[in-house]
Amino acid sequence: MSSRLSADVRYSLEAFSRRGGLAGPHKDGWGIAWYVDEDVRLLKESEPAADSACVRFIQDHPFSAAIVVSHIRKATRGPRAMKNCQPFARELGGRMHVFAHNGDLAEGLRGVAASGFRPVGDTDSERAFCALLERLRPLWQGGGTPAIDARLGVVADFAAEIRRLGPANFIYSDADAVFFHGHRRVHGDRPVPEPPGLHVLCRRCAGRPAMLSAEGLAVTLVAEQEVVLAASVPLTDEPGWRALAEGEIVVARHGRILATASSPAAPG
Prior knowledge:
Helix content is about 20%, strand content about 35%. It has a single domain (about 1-260), classed as Glutamine Phosphoribosylpyrophosphate, subunit 1, domain 1, CATH 3.60.20. The strands form two sheets. Strands 1, 2, 3, 4, 9, 10, 11, 12 and 13 form a nine-stranded antiparallel sheet that branches. A six-stranded antiparallel sheet has the order 5-6-7-8-14-15, covered by helices on one side. By secondary structure, the chain is of the alpha+beta class. β10 and β11 (about 215-220) form a beta hairpin.
């Protein structure tokens, strides 16, 4: 989620998983990160959300934030362990950066071993995050926030590279903007990943306060609130959800879409 103003958010991660038909296989952990200024509060566990006292605490104590990233894990690489649960968070340029990936990437990510960012866990997703931060590092070394176009260019090139390794849907935030990249995912019983891998929805509340409600998610919309939501599958039955094209990147800031890009396939 990216919103113009901080929104009161109530999460039920177990219900959230059921909405996408994920309750069965996605039982290997969960995580949720929300921004407070340039820092993040990050909660995650390797246990199923249904068995978590921490999840129940989140359900009973809504929080307020303008950027929220959450993930429910099905282990493909690395055992069930907290170090392998997403989202992942790292500091770069005096900001906390957050990353969540849905997919399964083969070996071959370059530039991780020699970088200043080292994986803590065993997942392909965390290696991908470290590789992305290494590519972004030159932009953030000069101080200040790099231009959106420059950041988007790096993210697009990176996305094209990792799509060659497998399904590469991801959400990445640098505390200023949120980058959504859609690719492919497994749909139902079909074994081969297919697009779409990510959907987005833009909502605006221009009049009285309202509520954006889905199974597992409730966002209080105050007057003049604007929100961009992204999820693997549409969270509500309302019109407006749009499937991202394969390789499409959407950039959101303060609840508005700033830019979109089609990330071309990497050569070779």
